[in-house]
Amino acid sequence: MHKVYDNILETVGDTPLVKLNRVTRGLQCTVYAKVEFMNPAGSVKDRIAIHIIEEAERRGEIQPGATIIEGTSGNTGAGLAMVAALKGYKAIFVLPDKQSEEKRAALRAWGARVVVTPTNVEPEDPRSYYSVAKRLVEETPNSFYANQYYNPDNPATHYKFTAPELYSQIDGKLDVFIGGMGTGGTITGVGKYLKEKNPNIKIVGVDPVGSLYYDYFHTGQLTEPHTYVLEGIGEDFLPSTMDFQYVDDVIRVNDRECFQMTRRLVREEGLYIGGSCGAAVAGALKYLKRHDRPGLTAVVLLPDSSSKYLSKIFNDGWMRENGFLDPETRFGTVSDLISGRSERTLITIEPSARVTEAVGVLKLHGISQMPVVDDGKLLGVLFEKRVLEKALEGGPASSAVGDIVDASYCTVDGDTEIGVLAELFRRFKVAVVLGEHSKPTDIITRIDLIDYISRSTNGTA
Prior knowledge:
With 461 residues, this protein is α/β, with parallel strands linked by helices. The protein has helices spanning 45-58, 75-87, 101-109, 129-139, 153-169, 185-197, 213-219, 255-269, 275-291, 316-321, 334-339, 355-365, 384-393, 418-424, 446-457, and strands at 17-19, 30-35, 67-71, 90-96, 113-117, 143-145, 176-180, 202-208, 249-253, 297-302, 369-374, 377-383, 410-412, 430-434, 440-445.
């Protein structure tokens, strides 16, 4: 008998590579999709679910009748629920409330208990899904915490299985691998393996507006994350399973373009995929348009299926209510904004400078904020409000600028679309423009954006 399996777990992996044809029209390169939604529980997370549980069993960390507990956006929970059902374990999963009802229903179908927590809270908040999962582990006898954000078996799965499978399928003829960044397990494990095979292969991560990965990769600083609608990728803290030494670039995407690309992939490529897949392809196309050439071969990993998003991304009413069906106004890029503005020199200050010196610089140049830079590296932004607060505390002359540096900023580059910049300005006051080697080259405020859009609308930009 051919392709007959003893149980459903044996069918995990060996997912196909499928060439993208319509959404990549206009590109000279070749783009393949690694369609992970064809795993039995519907996502790439089936892979880590099996490996994490089997490794824990091998080490004696799971006992008969144990309860598996995990904080998840839904896909890891589905994989673990499937494994638990086959192996006779109980399961409890903690999900943020932004996750779709389909994900919750699927987990319950496997017999798991589902606990829903608020999305818009800090990771350390006792109500966050990370904190609640930890508490449940402490309260539940004979429990096992899968802990995908800190479990080295997560990236090890992709190093041992996903990456070799992909590399073999494409006969090693690969130039770029692109994937979304959530726990970081996929991009870290795949990136490590591919870099060992060929250090010239580029590893590109995709990060949604609101997550902290993009800014951290480009500056080394942790900026303030904020809420976004996309499920499955992006984070508001740094998991230990995310290793940036294997990442060459990070591309930023927003909710609208992710959801619209998801719908395009289903309708134009016939791929029954979910929102994080749309994000991966939207980010891939941005990167590939900048680096396109004949003969270049790229693979983008598509994590999960459409079945978990029917009430949201594929619901016209939901999309319309959230403004995601509206066509995105094309105002160009950050480079267009800068080139159409009167030329000005970026004023920066070193972290060792005294606060009184900073006051003089702000006053001299008539500005209300400036980047804090050390040896060409962006450390944060100094705002006049923070200087005032320090002055009111008394003794500002003895304080260094580095003591009051602020993380309330975002970073962009010249290729960042104005639509993405506008999305960022819903949360941040300023955007620092990064040039070559992530060196700050300019700073953009909300009034700069308003002025640019006004001139563009009037045909004067």
